[in-house]
Specification:
Blueprint lengths: L11 H18 L4 H11 L3 H15 L4 H5 L8 H13 L2 H14 L4
Helix pairs in contact: 1-2, 1-6, 2-3, 5-6
Length: 112
C-alpha cells in the first residue's frame, strides 16, 4: 500500500521533520521519556546538521526549557505553525494529538 503523501513533492526537510515527529511520538507514547526519545533519535539520525538540531533540543530541555522554547532557538528548522501547535500542546495537554497532527501535516506537505 502506497500512502498518498509519498507521491507528493515533499522537500527533504519536510520528510526529515515529519519522520522526526512521528518517531518522537511513537517513542513517547510507548512510555519513553522525552529526553530519552531525543537521545535515541540522535543515535539513529544520519544527517549531522539535523543531529545537531536534535541535540540542541535535548540540551535545552535538559536545562529546564519547554520543547517550544527549545524549538525557538532553531527557527530555520521549526516553522511558526509547528511552533505554535507545540506551544498549544504544552499549555492544553493534548500532546499526542498535536504531535500526530504536526507529523501528518509535514508528511502531507501542509507545513514546512
Amino acid at each position: 500500500m502506497v500512502h498518498w503523501f509519498l507521491t507528493m513533492d515533499l522537500t527533504p526537510k519536510q520528510l526529515q521533520l515529519g519522520t522526526f515527529w512521528r518517531k518522537f511520538l511513537r517513542l513517547t507514547r510507548s512510555g519513553v521519556s522525552s529526553l530519552r526519545a531525543l537521545e535515541v533519535i540522535i543515535e539513529e539520525e544520519s544527517t549531522a546538521d539535523f543531529r545537531a538540531v536534535i541535540q540542541g533540543l535535548h540540551d535545552e530541555i535538559e536545562a529546564g526549557f519547554l520543547m517550544s522554547e527549545a524549538m525557538e532557538k532553531f527557527p530555520d528548522d521549526f516553522s511558526p505553525s509547528v511552533l505554535e501547535m507545540i506551544r498549544t500542546a504544552e499549555k492544553e495537554g493534548h500532546w499526542d494529538i498535536v504531535v500526530e497532527e504536526v507529523s501528518s501535516g509535514l508528511l502531507e506537505g501542509t507545513f514546512d
